[in-house]
Here is the input.
Amino acid sequence: MVKQLLKKGFTAALTHSHLLVAVRGWVFAVQVTYQGEVALLRQLGSEEHHEQEEKDEDESLQDTPASIERQVATAISPRISSALSGLARQYPSYSSGVRLCRRWLTSQLLEPHIPCMVTQLLVAHLYLCPGQYEVPHTPSVALLRFLSLLANTNFLTTPFFMSVGEEFHAMDKSELQQRFNKQRSTLPPLFMVTPYDIRGSLAKLEADGIENVSRSTLEFRYGLVSHCTRDCPDAHVLALTKLLATRCLASYTASCTQPSYSCVPLFQPALSFFDMVIHVKPALVPRYEESVHFDPTKAKFMRVTCQEQTQTVCRPLSAAEVNVFTTFMQMLKDRMGSIALIFHDVFGGAVVGVCFKPGALQEKPCPKILWQQEYQLVSKERNGTVQFDPHVLASTLKKSFPALITSIEIKDA
Here is the structure.
């Protein structure tokens, strides 16, 4: 495939999992999969499990992390994306509404913790279940409905059944509602199900009756429900999103009737909710020209044409082309991912927010091996215990990236 694309003048590169093709500045990731690959991964997992203990359940129903990841990536997610594409053709404002809602989430530094698929499904809910209103006809109305949905929904007691592309069978919906009521503490904070998350034969379920079906069959059938929200957003991010949406909606309601009203404040991040705020130089941030704060009359940036981007996007970067801000963000995720949540606006944001996880700053037993990069974040080491300190972290970051970081604010406990 790569040879054929190169012969036709396309820019292409092969990775361990995808074929990257660049066309006019757009990069497409092509992945080839085998239909029986999921079953083979389940079989391999069953064989490994058999070596440890005996099992009388059907081997074909035993999921493994690898089989789940492969099935979601190659079977379930493409079907959901196809259904959402059909919804976009039915409602012209849907696509623009999704982009505007994503822009609000990114401006509040939330999107790294709220996947794009989740945003698309939440906006689709506004069109599939408009309630007492008509479906949004403009992107701005979709944004306001989106903020209202986030602000006024009790996610602890509200499941989202997204009948996009297909309808739920009454038996499945009743069973999922019962599971939601009985097993709420074990389910994701944002419970969102589509008909494509349900596996297995419906005809067999109807013939035998759901009360006569084995537990393993039911667990397999509903094992992937709410897969897109299983890892994120977590309860902390969801609560923060709800609070920010409430504030933005109240601000809009209070000032939207003024002749001089501007929507820019809706896209200003609320930094008071973060334990640490890191300010960086805008000139070193990729895509800063997409930021709300970018002023083209006062700043000059070297813009890359689509043709130039097409020629360079699929080749390895040299040491001179590696952006210092990208390195900085990767370092934060690697070193602090276990003790804090990192928030950043991927569309040119010059601010990085840090929220420490509960108990992350308390004294803990010192590990046998304390790596040098971890030691740089430690302020106390005594009596066999260590303690992470935000002030030591801030000092270390300033010394490591003096040309990038302009200031660091630390919220006192």
